[in-house]
Automatic annotation (TrEMBL):
GO terms for cellular component: cytoplasm. It comes from the Eukaryota. PROSITE patterns: BTB (PS50097). SMART domains: BTB (SM00225). Residues 15-88 form the BTB domain. This is BTB domain-containing protein. Pfam families: BTB.
Length: 162
């Protein structure tokens, strides 16, 4: 069944949702199915209900300029196929996946991969993500996180133990 859903994405049969990803210089149009998008992601459900996805020629159209084509390709494949392989991915790629999950409200995927950088890329994290006390508090006060505050603190404590 997973393969059939991915084929549906690839062959664009009966699509009703166009997602313009990237910017004007480097953008790509993805054809998708609103029922799958809104079922798998509250981001798309919200876009359909609040009018952010506009109706053009019987299709919904949504612009997402701030996600790379490569990242969106991974995320849309996850939305349709329900699986992802993050083994051997670079730490920066994993962090970009987390950012993409946050934006598209893919909590299930976010929960699945959030520990991967801590468990597999500690050195990279400490070399590239050192921050001041004020910076950390600013991050923690962000209300757009996919997790509760106590969960965030649990992860920070675990990260600090490494």
């Amino acid at each position: 069944m997973v393969t059939q859903f991915l084929q549906l994405l690839d062959n664009k049969k009966n699509y009703d949702f166009i997602i313009n990803v990237g910017n004007n210089d480097n953008g790509k149009e993805f054809c998708a199915h609103s029922i799958i998008l809104e079922t798998r992601s509250t981001y798309f459900e919200d876009a359909l209900s609040n009018g952010k996805a506009r109706k053009v020629n019987n299709n919904f159209v949504l612009d997402i300029p701030d996600i790379s084509i490569n990242l969106f390709n991974i995320l849309i494949s996850y939305i349709y196929g329900g699986t992802i392989n993050i083994d051997h991915k670079e730490a920066a790629d994993i962090l970009n996946l987390l950012i993409g999950c946050e934006k598209l409200k893919l909590k299930e995927l976010y929960d699945y991969i959030q520990d991967y950088p801590i468990e597999h890329h500690q050195t990279w994290l400490f070399q590239n993500l050192s921050t001041s006390k004020e910076g950390l508090l600013s991050i923690c006060k962000n209300k757009n996180w996919c997790m509760e505050e106590n969960e965030l603190w649990d992860h920070i404590i675990r990260w600090g133990k490494y």
